[in-house]
Amino acid sequence: MGQSYFSEGMAHEATFSLYMRDYPPDRGYMVAAGIDDTLDCLNALAFDPTNIDYLRTTGIFTGDFLEFLAATRFTGSVRAVPEGSVVFADAPIMEISAPIIEAQLVETIVINQIQYQTLLATKSARCVLAAQGRAIADFASRRTHGTEAALAMARASYIAGFAATSNVLAARRYEIPPAGTMAHSYITGFSSEIEAFRAYARMFPARSIFLLDTYDTISGARNAALVAGEMEDAGHRLTAVRLDSGDLDHLSRQVRSILDEANLGYVRILASGGLDEYEIERLVNNGAPIDMFGVGTRVGVSGDAPWCDMVYKMVCYDDRPVMKLSGGKESMPGSKQIFRHFDSSGLMTGDVIALAYENIAPGRPLLAEAMTNGQRISPRENLAVVRQRVAEGAAGLSPPYQRLREPARYPVEFSSTIQELTQHTREQLVASINT
């Protein structure tokens, strides 16, 4: 496409809008993430000599176009919702305006970064909701789809409200509290389970978490209680025990009883192993005495919803509104703004999508300038700020929109002005097709 635009002399500004056509199953809202990474990608857009050499070997592109690419940088502007914002279907998460070749070139990386991280942040936020105040740690790195995905998961889950990550690189890079426990292999490396517990307690007297289910969970709990008593005699306290398999509801009750009988009420129970928001919700609602959760595979790959229908559509070229007419995939023309409305208690009551120049009072506009002339307006936000934004966004949603299954549909409407523009543009396009 870029080669064709170039050959046709098409260099005017185009505006593209990134949004979701609809929600993944059982989602009533999404948490926007990956925006900061996308801005960094746009800032870094460049074709180095090896890229140009490769493109030349394909025989597809003309020499003058390759020279053009060698000098290409992103020079456009970006408006986006702030990282961590609660967003809804149809409403733009980001709009990019740039010379058409630049704006077209970045399509894949923009969708890739924001779609994936938004899925992870949303899945993680749902786990936080289900846990009802219990701490959650990211244990997903082993089964995410690559090391970069593991880093994205650690960051997305932290801004969504997780307390820690087992990914040490992510902990260092993003200043997330690191967390970890022993593996089953650690225990099998010793002559007995109790000796493994004792060795671990000697090394980490202030932060030991014993894994109970290597051989038998109930026997493991009794061994943990014994070693915890020895730790008390030495002036230390066992932090927690971990359940990683079996009926977590039933086992947690048995383990809690064993710990309490040994006067170890301060020892917490951490559950892990195949958890997601649905299982966490079940355990919490059943009153299982679980204090913390470690989540991995199902959240790290957003198992029940590994993709969403996020699209990047041109809405304007050379000041001319454009749209797509395909059945079921019609797009809305024109650069846009989102206006969010609230009730007197601060709960969201609905969003109105309008043209960028409109003012739908008393709604709060969400899209803000993030880049101008190819440069970021401000540096990456501190994750604590983003984390607070996610928490406030979730608190602003009424319970029907937060339900984990079959949530209510949050109201998103289009202004009369954008509806009129859409109708006019559609009529013009249909007329051009029929002539």
UniProtKB/TrEMBL annotation:
UniProt xrefs under InterPro entries: Aldolase_TIM (IPR013785), N/Namide_PRibTrfase (IPR041525), NAPRTase_C (IPR041619), NAPRTase_N (IPR040727), Nic_PRibTrfase-Fam (IPR007229), Nic_PRibTrfase_pncB (IPR006405), Nicotinate_pribotase-like_C (IPR036068)
Nicotinate/nicotinamide phosphoribosyltransferase domain location: 136-298
Positions of the Nicotinate phosphoribosyltransferase C-terminal domain: 364-421
Post-translational modification: Transiently phosphorylated on a His residue during the reaction cycle. Phosphorylation strongly increases the affinity for substrates and increases the rate of nicotinate D-ribonucleotide production. Dephosphorylation regenerates the low-affinity form of the enzyme, leading to product release.
UniProt record, GO biological process: NAD+ biosynthetic process via the salvage pathway
Reaction(s) catalysed (UniProt annotation): 5-phospho-alpha-D-ribose 1-diphosphate + nicotinate + ATP + H2O = nicotinate beta-D-ribonucleotide + ADP + phosphate + diphosphate
GO cellular component: cytosol
UniProt family annotation: Belongs to the NAPRTase family.
Function summary: Catalyzes the first step in the biosynthesis of NAD from nicotinic acid, the ATP-dependent synthesis of beta-nicotinate D-ribonucleotide from nicotinate and 5-phospho-D-ribose 1-phosphate. Helps prevent cellular oxidative stress via its role in NAD biosynthesis.
Protein's name according to its UniProt entry: Nicotinate phosphoribosyltransferase
Organism, scientific name: Geodia barretti (Barrett's horny sponge)
